[in-house]
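Lecture notes, unit on binding sites. The following record was shown on slide 14. It pairs a sequence with 1AE.
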Amino acid sequence: MNHNCIATYRLYDDRADFHKKAESIAIGLTVGSWTDLPELQKESMRKHLGRVEGVHIYESDQPGERYADIAIAYPDVNFSHDIPALLVTVFGKLSMDGRVKLIDLQWSDDFQQAFAGPKFGVDGVRKLLGVYDRPLLMSIFKSVIGHDLPTLKEQFYQQALGGVDLIKDDEILFENPLTPIQDRVRACMEAAQQAEQTTGKKLLYAANLTGSTFKLREQALRAIDAGANALLFNTLSYGYDALHGLSADKDINVPILAHPAMAGALYPSPHYGISASLLLGKLMRLAGADLILFPSPYGSVTMPREDNQGIRAACLDTHMPMNRSLPVPSAGIHPALVPLIIKDFGTDVVVNAGGGVHGHPDGTASGGQAFVQAIEATMQGIQLADYAASHAELQAALHMWGNK
Ligand code: 1AE
């Protein structure tokens, strides 16, 4: 049985001896020094010593392009079974030591056992909605700050009338006197019931869980008490451990959507930070995110396609012994992009849009309907333009955003 966590790094350096560098990381981030230790002390320290697992050097004559992928094994005994301890061990001080990016982590079964993962995951969310055979559709509140409850309730109602499966708060809607979370949830769940009489569809409303870290549980329970059936959480600003605490709490029995706010400070550089697949895929799932949002390669805020596929793989990897997370490629999504999303992600995906719903020329409800129609068409193998001939909402959307 493996009792180590293996961290893989990419280091850029035109001249470095990467083997020496790997040794210095393995020793420096574990026992501190080795050759200078007396023999007796070496014996007692051996179980804490990091080990170089591999060094693959990619030579290049181009300045700034020589790099190596280095894998180091860190003994489990060195850190407690929580994500903060893991991250500080493998990338605490090292993250500030030159051009080095953390690419991947493989933790041991022992470490893994401290995490139950997403409470609902792909299958649980589908079961709550009664939707099994197509991508899910989510709409995002837009223009939330400074509005009162009746205004937000109406915006929610229009989104729900569009036939979406989920509606999420905008991540910038914090606790405020006009729309406190419990009142907002009550008003929106009322609107959901009203819309259900027309659409016949159940939906999940992910209310943004905000405020001091130490009051998050209280706030989540307040929202759930008021009828919240999902929560949105800005995970990276609070830390993975806060998400883990919420997802592992037996009283917080609703799906959690992890928002990627702040992620751009960490993944885009080839030289620094943490890879997108680890940051927004593996670690989010480990911490218990049922749905994970991230920028798609197609829209307004973009992420490279290979990073998206890395996140998707981490969300859905069946080797990870926990529920799978639903990938939610987002930002600048409009109905014409639906075939591309399904081609790249398959059907276990959430099509998610804010501007692409509310910006529809005939209004928010028509915006949702255009997405529903785009999903129907794609699932039936019909070109959007052909389907649009008999579906006015899709027709108007394609006219607005183009038929890609
Ligand atoms: C990557 C996060 C996207 C997000 O949270 C958001 O609000 C997107 O809005 P639209 O669809 O770009 O309007």
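Take-home: The two ends are 50 Å apart (CA to CA).
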